[in-house]
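tool_call: predict_structure(chain=1)
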Amino acid sequence: MQKKFNSDFYIHPIEVDNIEWEIVVTITTDFWEKVIYSWYDIKNNETYSEYINKSLLWNFINNIPKKILILWFWGWTYIKFLEDHIQNIEIIWVDIDEAMLKISKEIMLIKTNNLFISDAGLFIEKLISENNINFDSILIDCYWWNSKIPNNLITKEFFYKCSNILSEKWTISINMANFEQEEYTYKKMHKNIVSQLNNKQYSLLLANKNDYSNVVWIYNLNKKYTSRDFYRNYIKEVNKWNIKNNFKILENIFLDEKDLLEN
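tool_result:
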C-alpha cells in the first residue's frame, strides 16, 4: 500500500510504500527521476541503507548514549532503529520538513514526542537559551534538495554553538553525501569542527570499500580504532545492554587509512 506526503521541501510528494514488512521511501527529483532514499525492515528491525548503518554504528563505539540530538534528513530511520534496539535513551529530532514528522508518526509509529520543525542552526540556539545541554551525541545529516549542506551549518560559529550543548564525553557523527563531488566543502567543515570544538581526540572516517560516494565521519573518539575493534565493541555493547544482534550494521564498512580529510 502506498501513501503520499506533500512536502515543504521537495516539489513532488514523498511516496511511502508499506510492502509486507518493508517500508520504502521514494523521492521524485525535479528531473522526474525516482530515488529510494530510505527503507526499513520492521520485521527484523533493521535498515538496508549502508550510510544509515554507518551513522548508527557510532552508538556502539564508546558507550551507548543516554541523550542524542538528530538534525534533519530521514531522522525517523535513525530513531526507529534506536527505539527498536536500545532502551532508556532520550532522543530529540529536528527536521525542516513537516512531511518527515508525519511519516515518522503515521507510518513508522515513532514513540518519542521530541520532534520539531526548525532550521538546525536556530534550533541549536534555542537549546542553548533553554539551557538544554549535555547531549552525548549529535547526528548531523542536513541537506537541501540538491544534496548541498546549508552554508550556515559548516561554519565555525555553528560548531561552536554545538559545543555548548555537549556533555563531557560527546560524539558527533556527520553523514557526508556525495563525498567525491563535495570534498572541498567537507574538508572545510572538518577544519571548522576541529578549531571550534577543541577536539584533541581522534576522528574516524567510515566508508564503503573503494566507494567514497557516501561516507560518515565520527568525532571525539578516545583512541584510534581498527576494524576488529568495531566488532569487539559492538558485541560488548550488545551483550551489556541486551540489544538484539544486527550484524548488517557492520557489513561493507571499512576504516579509512588514507587520512583523506586531513590533507
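agent: Residues 259-263 have pLDDT under 50 and may be disordered. Proceeding to next step.
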